[in-house]
Structure formats: C-alpha cells, structure tokens
Amino acid sequence: MNFQTMNKQRKFVLIASAIGVISMFLPWVSIPFLGSVNGMHGSGIFIFLCFVVAGIITLLGDQTKNFDTSMWTITLVTGAIPILIILYYLIDASGNTIFGSVIGFGVYIGGLAAIGVLASAYIFRSPTDNLKDTFNTMKKNIESKINTHDNTTTGSTTPDNSNSSLTNTNPPA
C-alpha cells in the first residue's frame, strides 16, 4: 500500500473509516461520578464492523483507481448503516437521561466519520457510477441467478403421488 499513489476516493474513505474505528473506543456515554462507556457495546459492534469493512475495501484491488461498482455500493452501505444506527442512538438517548448521563463525544466523531465514508465514496465516484444503474444491475444479476437455478434443476417440481397411500380410492357417496 502506497498512500501517495492511492486514489483520492480510497484515501478519504480509508481516513474516515480509521477515524470511525478510533471513535468506537472513545466515550459514547458519560455518567458523572461513575465513568464512561465506549461504543463497543450492543449495536456499536456492528458500527465498528462497518468501519472495518470500509477500510478493508480501500485496500482491495487496484488502489490507483476508483472502486468498481460493487465495491462502491458496499462502501456506500458501510457508510449509511452507521449513520442510521447513530441517529437512532442519538434520538433514543436524548429522552433517557439516567443518573444525569451525557452523550459522549465518541458518538459525534463516529457519526462524522460515517458521513465521511459515505460522502467520500459518493463525491469521488467514477463518472459511470450512479445508484439507479447499480440497483438495476444488481436486480438483473439476481434475476439471472434465479433463472439459471430454475433451469439447472432436474426432475419435476411437483411431487409424484401415484404411489401415495393417501390417495382416495373410495367412490363419492
């Protein structure tokens, strides 16, 4: 990995995901006289994994080029999911102030890092990348795999009940 020759999109996503990973170990909730809790609890572990996946994606493939379409989509998802979880956390925590608890600065840094991952992947995308075409391509790929699976199955899809003991042989009354 040569950071100097790395593509701008990959650089910014890598930096934002590294900041996101660091934010997970900062205080997310502080309670006076009791201490603080970091983000590595509950859904925070999932946020951590999203940041790690975004960072790993930047290291895969040709680092001098933008993400290909599938990696671009995954990177967008790994930025969007933490944003949604953190927004839910902030909304939920604003009404629950147990023992005077305060939302820690790690949540805000994590949210900014998630926005950074999402924005970096989107702003510095290839000119051919757009969400509509990406979803249409994914839809076609899924449909073709389903059709391929249906064409390769052998035998009948309906069960053969000719030898079944459940067949009614009595004439109607």
Feature tags:
mainly alpha, 3-stranded antiparallel beta sheet, 3 strands, 173 residues, 58% helix, flat
Task: Give an overview of the whole structure.
The protein has 5 helices and 3 strands. The termini are far apart. It is mainly α and 173 residues long. The chain has a 3-stranded antiparallel beta sheet. The protein has one domain (8-133). The model has no long low-confidence stretch (mean pLDDT 85). It is flat.
Task: Return the string of H and E elements.
Answer: HEEHHEHH
- What is the overall silhouette? flat
Strand order of the largest sheet: 2-1-3
Rg: 25 Å
What's the number of extended β-strand segments? 3
The helix fraction, in percent, is 55-70%
**Proportion of residues in β-strands:** 5-15%
Mean pLDDT: 85
User: What's the end-to-end separation, in Å?
Assistant: 82 Å
Q: Are there runs of 5+ residues with pLDDT below 50, and where?
A: none
Biased composition (Low complexity): 149-173
Region (Disordered): 146-173
Keywords: Membrane, Transmembrane, Transmembrane helix
Transmembrane segments: 12-34, 40-60, 72-91, 97-124
Short description:
This protein has five helices and three strands; from the N terminus they run H-E-E-H-H-E-H-H. The model has no long low-confidence stretch (mean pLDDT 85).
What is the element layout, followed by pairings?
Layout: H1 8-23, E1 27-31, E2 35-38, H2 44-59, H3 69-95, E3 102-103, H4 105-123, H5 131-152
Antiparallel strand pairs: 1-2, 1-3
Biased composition (Low complexity): 149-173
Keywords: Membrane, Transmembrane, Transmembrane helix
Region (Disordered): 146-173
